[in-house]
Amino acid sequence: MEAVTAMWSMIEGALTIIPDGSPTNALDEPLASAKDFAEAMSQVKSVLVNAAGETFAKLEQTRAELQGTIQNLNDRHRSHSLILDQEIAEFVADPENDASITGRNHPETDAYATAKVNLDLLDQEAARLALEVDLFHREMAQAEQDLADKIRNISGGDEVTRRDGSRVTTSQTAWGLYPPAAAPGPGEAPRVVSLDDYFGLAVARATAQRIEWFATATDQDLEDWLATHPDFFATVGFIPPAQAQALYDRLRSRSTQDASGIWVTGPLSALWNRAPATIGNLNGIPASVRAEFGARELERLLGESTLTEDQRAKLNLLLDETAKGSHVLSLFLDGQGEVRGSLFVGDLDSADHVITVTHGIETDFGAMNEWGRIATDLAAMSNEQLRLRGMDPSTAVVLFMEWDSGAWYTVQGMKEPVLGADREAALVAGMRFVNPDAWQEGWAHSLGTTMVTTNQIHNPGVFDHLTLFGSAGITESAAKALAAQIADETVSVSAASSGLDPIAWMGRTDLSTHPVDPKTVEGVTEIGSHGGAVENYLNADGREVTGAATQGHNAGPSTEIIYRIHRAPYWHLGFIPEESVGYLDPRSEAMMQAVADFAERVEARQ
């Protein structure tokens, strides 16, 4: 110790030591820093060990199981395809099997029939597996985000900087392989496609091929195949827009229409009569074409004798909306036989602005009257505000009802919002492909706000603005990502919630997977919903406009007791109000302010 003290004295004489002092305390600061760093690393190790031993171990197991299942499915598909090809080759090679004589281009052997049935079953299995792969991808991304969030909150030790003084940071990448950059020479490095992307492309390709088969199959073959694949038309919308357009162009080039516009020859004629939903549900072709085939599909479905009373009633509600001027954008029965689809109001193919609006929890086509009125009111109010500002009233409104929003007891989960987000993303991608210059906004109510925000986070740029009413909440990771998108001007967001809404908060409890009120996210603009003057809402006589308070969780005007009972004075049931004003009620401050803000955004872009 004496030698150390002597050396210390010599150093002090030559240099200025910070912190200065005796050798007994000179190492206190670096020692404390090292201790803090060691504790931080211990915490990080604990987080990583827990994640590796539990969350990621389960994901690794799921990934391995999915890869094994996909390989097994591919092997079986290849085996049955070889049998089918061999049987057809032998049939065609026999001169006695001339198709012009026999009326068919395939054999009627047991081997052919068995292989064909097995391939159809594999197609159905592949569609289910695609959903499992997508859910795995979402769970994986959420696990990564959760792990990153936990590690970011750990600190300790010295801050490390580069030579230029900037902080050294870490960045998170996807779990798996990055697609390598192209090589500088002819031998370009292969592109690595993720498991879910690969499977999505395979399913889309198979779906497109099946549509072309529809145009040539016999009526009986088509009927038999659809009987075993009732949810096929729900898959059509996932064909990528460019591929959908190319498919439609091929079919159109071989088809003709009569003077009234009806397809009379070629594959589109066959699809018009047999399976119009194959064209009506394609995202990436003009809405005007989809509307024609969608109306035809509605007519075809209503002619089916196998419909349940519930299905027929919901389809008739849709028919009522088309009689009021709305158009069918998509229509199908999902795997559970539930009627799903989307409508639009206005000229969607050439509109300068498109608002896609969607519903919340436990809502389906049974609420078509309410939501159809919301869509038409929104279109009328938006265009009127543009007209009063001297602008072209070129706004189209899309009512997105393709997703299953679940029941009240699933409101705190994320399965329904994630699957709904995928469908909405596909729909909007198709609209952007056809009308790339249109400004796109996403408006949503209740759990629909969870869904549309998930869509925006998974697909940055899908919407230019979001308007959220009575939100059931968003995830913590979505809140951070949304704030980042607002900060870099990828999207702007408005949100409204009423103090008279006793239901929305149930989706945002501490037990929920999406507990964050989007109003609290940095950069989100709050829309008033308690009743009062509406800023920038114009009318013909220039008077100030006052909007009503939103009085319950309902979207439109409602007489349902669940939206009225909380307003009974002192809970005296004899004085329950007869009606509650909703968030998207044309009388409400929230709706009027949202429309006025929309018009202001349009005007600011002029």
Principal-axes shape call = globular
* H/E series: HHHHHHHHEEHHHHEEEHEHEHEHEEEEH
- Classify the secondary structure makeup into a structural class: alpha/beta
What is the overall pLDDT average?
Answer: 83
| Helix segment tally | 17
Approximate strand percentage: 5-15%
| Helical fraction | 40-55%
How far apart the termini lie comes to: 78 Å
**Major beta-sheet overview:** 8 strands, mixed
* Number of separate strands: 12
CA radius of gyration: 30 Å
Oligomer: single chain
Q: Mind explaining what this structure looks like?
A:
The chain is an alpha/beta fold and 606 residues long. It contains 17 helices and twelve strands. It has helices at residues 2-14, 28-93, 99-102, 110-152, 195-214, 219-228, 232-235, 241-253, 267-274, 277-280, 287-302, 309-323, 368-388, 415-434, 447-458, 476-487, 589-604; strands spanning 256-257, 263-265, 327-333, 339-345, 353-358, 395-401, 439-445, 465-469, 492-496, 525-526, 532-533, 546-547. It has an eight-stranded mixed beta sheet with strand order 3-4-6-5-7-8-9-10, sandwiched between helices. A hairpin with a 5-residue loop joins β3 and β4 (339-345). The termini are far apart.
Provide a brief overview of the structure.
Helix 13 packs across helix 17. Strand 1 and strand 2 form a beta hairpin. Helix content is 49%, strand content 9%.
Keywords:
two-stranded antiparallel ribbon; 12 strands; 606 residues; globular; alpha/beta; eight-stranded mixed β-sheet; single chain
Write the layout of secondary structure elements.
Blueprint: H1 2-14, H2 28-93, H3 99-102, H4 110-152, H5 195-214, H6 219-228, H7 232-235, H8 241-253, E1 256-257, E2 263-265, H9 267-274, H10 277-280, H11 287-302, H12 309-323, E3 327-333, E4 339-345, E5 353-358, H13 368-388, E6 395-401, H14 415-434, E7 439-445, H15 447-458, E8 465-469, H16 476-487, E9 492-496, E10 525-526, E11 532-533, E12 546-547, H17 589-604
Parallel strand pairs: 5-6, 5-7, 7-8, 8-9, 9-10
Antiparallel strand pairs: 1-2, 3-4, 4-6, 11-12
Helix pairs in contact: 2-4, 4-5, 11-12, 13-17, 14-15, 15-16
